[in-house]
Amino acid sequence: MSERRIDRFPLGARVRLVDLAVDPYPIFAELREAEPVTWVPEIERWFLTRRDDILAVLRDPHLFTTDAPSTIRDMFGAHMMTTEGPRQVRYKRKCLPPFHASRLETASLPPLTAEVGRMVEVLQSGGQRAGEVRTGVARPVALHSVLSVLGIPLTETDRVNEWYEHFARALANFAGDPELRTAGKGAADAFGRALEPILEATRSGSRMRRLLSDLVCDHVDPLTAEEIRSNALIILFGGIETTESMIANAVWALLSHPEQIETARSRADALDLAIEETLRWEPAVQSAARHATRDTEIRGVRIAEGEVVHCMLGAANRDPAYFQDPDRFDVTRRNAGDHLSFAVGRHFCLGAPLARLETRVVLETLWSRCPGLRLDPHRPGAPYGYEFRKPKTLWVQWDA
Ligand code: HEM
Q1: What is the residue with the minimal CA distance to atom 31 of ligand 1?
Q2: 5, 100, 175, 274: most buried by Cβ count inside 10 Å?
């Protein structure tokens, strides 16, 4: 079967993950034009690259589901991202309140602004005029924010980082190494055990109200301890590297187009639009995967039951049928916000408002505290990666 597919989808057969990691966009453009539904033998998955097809798949959870065996389900159990229907809606509804933009503005904005200010001060300590923004700001901001919303004490940061490394390695374990799987599952169990005293303290009323406390104190059809653990795990995992990458990519995209920075800074809504354009142009998460629940067809191509379709979000974001001159980065693009970088449909990203807020605060703080902010020409870095994209390092300079 694979051999015939290789003949039928010659462009897909040439796709290499290492090339996608460096620069996926010319490859997406070729596929979108000539083989919009293609088979990629290197990972034995379907790739979709046209925006319309991707929208149709993500909006049809009956035909294309996340409710199927996957490493993320194996690792964390059943949670909102690996379930569909009423169960998924119930999980998401229970976890949604602290992620509402209005609640974030009051509960998260003041501490976030102070925290980012402190991080930039550390970057500038001793009169430094250069710093690395990904590990110095983006990563700690993402970690602090998601821990705060969940209500996990910041003293747990080192342990969370350690668990996170195990999860990341286990989820990227395409070769099925049993040791990586065991280490990942061990970290998920350790997270569950660490939650117990936090939930207990919440029950006794000695902790501040956050998502975990909301879930524990919920008396109407409450989630079980296992359901709280699984959903907390996906929120934690979903909120760290993604947001770190989104912040780093936004800083990189804007500093790579210095002529547009003044426009982006001119008004709050201009900055919000510019952030949407950074999301469209260089999304941190490049694909959303779905399993076909029965034999079906997309654009006349037969997809068999159980096969996995990768909706390439970065390709949808540069579809010329929807975005004019799509490869051009333009902070004034009116429809920039129609990108699919947070997906669409039932699984639309829970953390999108928080990630946007974090990015806005980082950009505003860097610009206000670091006059003449620019990329360091001696230490260049650009987004890299097939599934998650971010610069390995993001060195910037500023004036005294
Ligand atoms: C505070 C930060 C974040 C948190 C807590 C978070 C959490 C989550 C959760 C829990 C889901 C599953 C939602 C569901 O299935 O109903 C999700 C989905 C998703 N998130 Fe996020 N996320 C964050 C940031 C980001 C960022 C920065 C990006 C990319 C720019 C991103 C991209 C996505 C995508 C594409 C999906 C959909 C996946 C799919 O449908 O297969 N997330 N996120």
Answers
A1: 342
A2: 274
